[in-house]
Amino acid sequence: MNWAPATTGYDEVFEADGRPRSHYAPLISIMDSLTPEDVERRERLQKLALMNQGITFTVYGEKEGLERIFPFDFVPRIIPAGEWKTIQDGLVQRITTLNLFLLDVYHEQRCLKDRVVPPELVLSRKEFKRELLGLTPPRKIFTHVVGTDLIRSETGEYLVLEDNCRCPSGVSYVLENRALLNRVFPEFFASYPVRPVKEYPTLLLDALLFVAPRPSQSPVVVVLSPGIHNSAYFEHSFLAREMGVPLVEGRDLLVEGNHVFMRRTHGKRQIDVIYRRIDDEFLDPLTFRRDSLLGVPGLVNVYREGNVALANAPGAGVADDKAVYAFMPELIKYYLAEEPLLAQVPTYVGFRPEHFRYMTEHLDELVVKTTGDAGGYGMLMGPFATRAERERYLAVMRQSPGNHIAQPLVHLSSHPTHVDGRFRPRRIDLRPFILYGDRIRVLPGGLTRVALRDGSFVVNSSQGGGSKDTWVLAPREP
Amino acid sequence: MILSRVADGLYWIGRYLERAENVTRLLLVTEETASEVVGLDEDLARAEWNDLRVIFPGPDREDAPPRHPAALAQAALAELSIDPRHPYSILFSLRKARDNARTVREALTIEVFVNLNETYRELEAYDERRIGDGPTMRSALSDTHRGILSTAGAVEQTLARDPGWLFLKLGESLERVVRTVVVLRAKLPALASQEPKVDLPLFHSRWRSLLRGLSSLENYRRVHGARMEPADALRFLLFDPHTPRSLRFGAAAVKDLLEGISGAAALSAPARIMGKLAAELAYQGEDELRDGRYLPFLDHMLDELTRAHETLSTTYFGT
Hints:
Helix content of chain B: over 70%
Strand content of chain B: under 5%
Order of helices and strands of chain B: HHHHHHHHHHHHH
Number of strands of chain A: 23
Helix content of chain A: 25-40%
Distance between the termini of chain B: 18 Å
Number of helices of chain B: 13
Strand content of chain A: 15-25%
Number of strands of chain B: 0
Shape of chain A: globular
Number of domains of chain A: 2
Shape of chain B: globular
Radius of gyration of chain B: 20 Å
Structural class of chain B: mainly alpha
Largest interface: A-B, 23 and 24 residues
Oligomer: heterodimer
Number of helices of chain A: 14
């Protein structure tokens, strides 16, 4: 095979001298033994399997109901046990902090009074839900499921890019990618102690049952989806199927006498835990957006009464705000008296006038994001934008400086990826999934997203990204 | 018990799958019958295609259907197979079945979904320009037919016999008996009139194709032998207790499923409607046959089946 090491940023697979890193050597040697015809044939099988199984997502902004397969690259990403240990410990520390922060923000607001984070910054976020002040979610858990995005610096250090504390998606692809790779390239697995990911639905269900208000009475758990037109619908359905619980939409639920029920063919049934994949805004038209047709009128009141658990808890979004992110290292020290185990990307917060001035003056060096958006929408890649694009973006920025943050362009690491019949370096990130139940667990694996276009930094599925199977290796026997 | 929305979705999967199967089968049978007789009796070939357009009515069109039998055949084939706008095209039904399957996928098995999805995707990819080529089209329709049957097989082999299954089978059974009524309603007036003095073999072959169109020809022969007696065939299609597309069998199947869903102790409104209808077919129906009185009876059946469907929605689906 003809391999090409990365020319910029950290290369996941190859050393500077072009030899594979030790944990990649067996894989590279297996792949070198494949003919291009082998590869082509197996890639065809793999695409067919994805289409036939309906493993698709919906793209917004194109014609309605357009289904696409999420492109899958069969060259797996391998994370040695030692590296994973750092990631795992760092994530546990982070999620612990995020929950302490949320509990604080919705109660005493000590961190604001102590000026660890500017109060105005937190209180002005639209994700901060004034309606929920003073409310403690069951077992004090706000973020039952978190997906934290990691990237690697030029030296290979893992950096946190952002936390997703609302409805992080992608875990279904972690499981499907593994099944798919095993089906199409089973020989890859022979020489590696790959840790399984199949436990995820069981762990998720355990975490959800852990917060049930009536734990003794075989609690009823459901997955709440906005419906088939949502881009992550496949995942909602997948998780419901894998956990063996009903998938419901808002119209299937009703609130009566401060309990929430689902409508069934023969009468209604009370629900205890809702794994909701609907944003806060749409959850309950009586509390949040009045025009929401996706939600359940009265749901938040039932939650307030403690008669239903919502995962993730409403209001948790304020913790993954891109501006709050800038203060995470301080928050970790503040709540845990520990140094952060995972570094993060330096961040300029538009909320601070001196930062905003810097942002406007160095737009051509910075990646600017809006604090409310996700999925790569509403961002500017300064170094690659034309002058006109920057000017236009600047005008928008000036209308709401507080809603923007900026970071220097981090080069992301690259990984060989099969593109047009050749193996080429493409940029990747990593989204591990963290569950918070009786304790915090990190799924040994994650979604490695890959920017399939040459030179691209954007890995989001909505913007031409694909994904890879991600192997976390078990520690070797002593 | 299951969510009302899921029950509704499963019911429609059953209906649309069965509908797609019916359209595919009738297209295959009609295509074969019509192309065989077109040289012998052009009007008959035309009538076969026009019957199909009555059984599966499309959106109103300004232009009259083509006169020439070959053009008529091609138009009907195109409409009823892959026209995405025709409400009775196979593609339309399969898409509806699949859309419903996607919304209730957690209530299905991977086998059911994959079979349905593959069948749909293959038909969707069919090249319209190849419709004119008879053998190719026939082979594509046969593939679709096989895909639909294997989906039905996956339903049979893999789904738990829970309330969801009952609703899926209910949709299938109701669609099946409705379609038999509609086919008979369209075909019988011409067939049950006086037997023609000339060309009896041709007349009998039309009866045979009616039986085949309701996948009952082989079942009929096992009871009555190869000899075609229109009166026997009619009685068979209405009252045979074993063939799945006879009216008696179909009404009883719907009734049994509805009783299974509602529980025998407190019969639901649709279960009562179907109970009466099944009893009519079981105990007094044969008299209705004489002197062409089957037509009002078929109309009566269609009314009752429609009523059963409507009360089903209000009873279980909350719509």
